[in-house]
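Table 4 source record.
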Amino acid sequence: MNGKHITAIVLAAGKGSRMCSKTPKQYLELCGKPILYYSLKRFEESSVNDIILVTGKEDITYCKENIVEKYQLRKIRQIVEGGTQRYWSVRNGLNAIISTDYVLIHDAARPCLTVKSIEQSIVEVMKSGACTLGVPVKDTIKVVDESCMGIATPPREYLWQVQTPQSFCYEDIMKAYRRMEQEMNTDITDDTMIMERYLNKKTKLILGDYRNIKVTTPEDLLMAEIFL
């Protein structure tokens, strides 16, 4: 797109303990295919140039044979080993990239991602350098203390629920990760936090899709099946 190279990193190294299943949630069947298949397929159908799949070391061969080759996903350039935490998996994915201009980082546990949302992310990251999908919250949000007593009610119009993919200029996100590695912080939950903390760079939120849910519990599987 516009002569720029776009790489997607798809994260599938988690264990999914809250799913209460012996099988990691990214390999659970959803409408006849593994959850992981759906986000890979959407990136395959988009204008993304290539895909880096990050998974558990013990799952690399399985992913290659039973997902990439089985479903003829031709944009996947590498399957790399993940880390003990999400941010280390992202770091491994970034290090596997040989050359690119922009990178889209996506959780495989969000199988209802659409090609439209991917293309919106690409257009916006080229404008702002950092963006993420998200949706305005529908519920009132409470801030609580250690005893779960409500202490504040932030104005709802300023609150968004962040989704993935989160998209960045490759040089910027690499620089932020290098700085993070030096401090070894452990409270990072997503890549926009890394940009804020280590590059002092804000991330543009663009309207995503309420159906782009993260499959975390058995109830989420039912919702994702409906949406798909």
